[in-house]
Amino acid sequence: VGTSCVLTCPHKSNTTMVTWKISPEVGGPCTLGYRADQNKTGSTNCRGSTSWRFRPDWDPALEIQQVGRAHEGNYTCEVVATEGNFHKTYHLTVLVPPRLTLYCDDHGNPVCEAAAGKPAAQISWVPESNSTPKEEGHDKGTVTVLSKFTAHSTNMTNTTCIVSHPAGNQSKSIAC
């Protein structure tokens, strides 16, 4: 989320036409096209954040600026050249890093929350805990994971919550 994404397309020397067909999971389809004989580009129903990376006669790559969950879906590039037709399809999945919160509950137990991540984050503890995380799904495809530290001994001073996620790992420590 929030970064730029470049999807490459087969680059051929004698390209006559390049077409990007975009089918988002939410919203209507979009098409970007380029005709070499007229040196023209065109688009149908495309948002401003999705466009050619450079000039399509130099590089037929597609760039999505400020990627958001609305960009998820299928992206297919078709290149028509003298050697034949070439296709490349991507399925874009957007990762949303969770917000990490660590606090002490009313009984003095550390509680770790990885809020609104996509996909769901994994939570572990140092020292180890046999805690069973609870997951709550949200309507935008994100998941909040909550884990309560259960101590094996009562002389614990500092615990660390480790949140593992494809968008990046995080950790915080607390003494309750």
From TrEMBL:
GO terms for molecular function: signaling receptor activity. PROSITE patterns: IG_LIKE. The keyword Nucleus does not apply. Pfam families: C2-set_2 (PF08205), V-set (PF07686). GO terms for cellular component: external side of plasma membrane. Keywords: Disulfide bond, Glycoprotein, Membrane, Receptor, Transmembrane, Transmembrane helix. SUPFAM superfamilies: Immunoglobulin. It is found in: Membrane. Residues 60-175 form the Ig-like domain. GO terms for biological process: regulation of neuroinflammatory response. It is a single-pass membrane protein. Belongs to the CD200R family. This is MOR1A protein. The lineage of its organism: Eukaryota, Metazoa, Chordata, Craniata, Vertebrata.
